[in-house]
C-alpha cells in the first residue's frame, strides 16, 4: 500500500480523469493560477493549460449554471465551489436545472457534471465557512451526493463521479485535506451508490460518512476494549444510498447508530433511521440513535466548535444508548 | 460545419420566415383554445406578437448552434425546428411529447436541434447558454450559443455574472433581449433602472437594437451579430423591441393593464407588406396559411390519439439508471 493525503488524492483523481478524457474540464474561483484555496488543483494548469483549467470570477451562480450548459453541450465539467456554504448561491443551477434536466426533458440528455465543494468544521472557519449541507442536496431527486472519508475513496469515488452521466455533488471534508492514509498501489475507481464495511463487528451497526468515519473507527477501538464490537459502514454515496448494505448489517447486529457532522435534525441520519425503522423493524432490538451536531450554526470559537462537533466519546455514549446501557 | 446565416432578403427566404411566423402564431392561438377546453393543463405563457424575434434569430443559426430559452419559449422551440407532433404531444401531456409529458410548455426542449430547453426560472437560461458557449469555444466547433431573455430578466443577478464571464472569456454567446416592456405584471419602466446599451458598453459587449416586430430587420440584425460572434470576437447583445399582446400567462386577467393599450405592429402583417413589395401574391400566402393550419390540426389529432405520459417511465428517468452501482 502507498500513502497519500486526502487532498492530493483528489488532485490525482482530477489529473487522471483529465488525462483519460479530453472532455473533462475544471472550473472555479482561483483554481488555476492559485491552485485552489486548499491547493487541490495545484499543477493542473501547467499540465492541462488554461482551456481546461479555468479560473472564474467570484460568480457561483454562473459557474454552476455554466456547468449545466457545458454538460448538455458535450463537456464533462468539474466545478469547484470554494466552501459548501457558497453553494447557497448556486442553488438554482443545481436544484432546478442540473437535477431535473434528464427527467423533465424526457431523458433526451444527461448532465455529466460534478460540483466539488468542502464542508465541515474543525478549523474555526465560523458559521459561513463550515456548514455540512449535504442533506439539502440529498433531498433533491436527480442529484447524486458523494462524500469520501479518506484518500483511497476520495480518489476512487471522484473518478466514478466524473465518469458518471448524472450531476454529482462531491462533498469533501476540509479538515481531512491534510490527512494521510493508505491507498492501493494501483489507484482505481470505486463504484458510486455502494457503501463499504470498513470494520466488521457484531453488536452495533454504526453508519457514517466523511469525517465521521475516522471518528467511528476511533470509537470502535475504545469500545472494543470494553467488549463492544461495532460494525462501521462508510456510506460513501449519500444519495442514492446503499440501503441493502445497511439493512444487511442491521440484520446481523440488531442495533443501529447513524453519525454525521451535519446538524442532527432533518439530516441524513433521519432518513436512514426512518427507513431502517420501516424495512428493518424485525431486526431491531433497541432504539435507533442518531448523532450529529446540535441545532445551531457552527461556532467560530475553537472551544465551542469542539463541543459542537460529534466526538468519539459522544459516539461511544450513542452506541451504549443503542444497546440500552445508558 | 459553421452556418453562414441567411439574410439575403430573397422572396424564398421571406416566404420561409412568413410560414414560420404563421406556424408559431397559429400554434399559440390553437393552444389558447386547447387550454380553455382543458386539453392543455398547467401554465402556458404565450408570445403572440413576438414571433418575429424567434424567426429572425433562428434564421441566422444552424441546427448545431444552441439556444437556451425562457418560460415564453414556444416560438423559440418551433423556429429552431421542433416538430409539431412532439410539441403538441408535450403540451397535451402525452408519452409521445418531446419531453414525454414531464416538462410541458415551460420545459419544451429538443437536444437534437440544439434547443436546450425553455425554462421556468427567469434568467436561468443565461448561464446555461454561457456554459454552452464555453463548450463551443473549447470544442472549436464553429457553433454559437444564444440566450433568450425578456426585459424583466434584466433585474436578475445572473445577467451581470454571465455578461462579465462571457466578455472575460470571449465566448461565442449571443444575448437576445425580447423587450416587450413587461416584467410579468409590472411595466419594465417601474422595474429596471438602466439601459441595455449602456450596460453592454460597460462590459465591452457589442450591442444593437432592432425592431423586433419586423422579421426582415430581425434576420438582418441577427445575421450580423451572429456572424460577428461566430468569428470569435466575443459576445454580442441584440435588443429586440416588441409587444406582448396577451397577459403574462394564459388566463391572466391583466387588471394592471389598460384595455386600450396600443399593441406593437403585427409581425405577420409587417411580413406581408414585405412580401407584397417582393411581388408575392396573396394567393400564395393563402395556400401557406391553409397548409400550416392543416399541419397543426394533424399534430393535435395525433397527440389526442397518443398514449398519456407514463408514471413508470418517468420514475425510471430520475437518474441515468445504468450507472447506479456500477464502476467505470
List the helices and strands and how they pair.
The complex is a heterodimer of chains A (326) and B (328).
Chain A: E1 2-5, H1 6-20, E2 24-29, H2 44-48, E3 53-56, H3 60-71, E4 76-80, H4 91-104, E5 114-119, H5 134-138, E6 144-146, H6 151-163, E7 168-173, E8 180-183, E9 196-199, E10 204-208, H7 212-225, E11 230-234, E12 237-239, H8 243-253, E13 256-263, H9 268-279, E14 289-293, H10 302-308, H11 312-322
Parallel strand pairs in A: 2-3, 2-4, 4-5, 5-7, 6-7, 10-11, 10-13, 13-14
Antiparallel strand pairs in A: 1-8, 6-12, 9-11
Helix pairs in contact in A: 1-6, 3-4, 7-11, 8-9
Chain B: H1 11-36, H2 51-58, E1 66-68, H3 74-80, H4 84-91, H5 124-139, E2 145-150, H6 157-169, E3 173-179, E4 182-183, E5 186-187, H7 196-203, E6 206-211, H8 215-230, E7 236-241, H9 267-277, H10 282-305, H11 311-316
Parallel strand pairs in B: 1-2, 2-3, 3-7, 6-7
Antiparallel strand pairs in B: 4-5
Helix pairs in contact in B: 1-2, 1-3, 1-9, 1-10, 2-3, 2-8, 4-10, 5-6
Keywords for this structure?
heterodimer, A: 326 residues, alpha/beta, Rossmann fold, 7-stranded mixed beta sheet, 5-stranded mixed beta sheet, 11 helices, 37% helix, globular, B: 328 residues, 5-stranded parallel beta sheet, two-stranded antiparallel ribbon, disordered N terminus, disordered C terminus
